[in-house]
Amino acid sequence: MVLWALPREANAIRRELEVEDLWPHKGLLVLKFAGVDSISDAETLLGCELQVPQSQRSELQAGWNYVSDLVGCAVLDRGREIGQIEDVQFGAGEAPLLMVRGASRLVEVPFAEAYLESVDVIRKQVRMNLPEGLLEVNAPLSAEEKREQAQAGRKKR
Known about the structure:
157 residues, mainly beta, 2 domains
């Protein structure tokens, strides 16, 4: 099996790796790559994102999507486009977060089944019905809100 290792640094070049062996260890999977024969060699791969070539991807069950298929999709809330998916982040809660770039800011949208209407990776659209106010939760403060915060901070001193 061939994988691509993509370093986190911007403008980094991805590297092709061939899986030579694999085994379970403490609930995880250890991969041994051809040509990576020492700890020093392996340390060069720390922080890399491993990517499976599209031709080797397994077919997913209905309702599941690859992150690479979601990135670039337009997100629509009740038919109104709010932006495009730049990334998907895991681990912040029960549902992954879609990092959606709108006209003026980045919005975190829970990719939760309760809010999901449909995903069409061919048309590059994710249709959702988001709760009222969700998009405003992480909105930047207005000039008035910044002044109010500054005044409240001065009063505490």
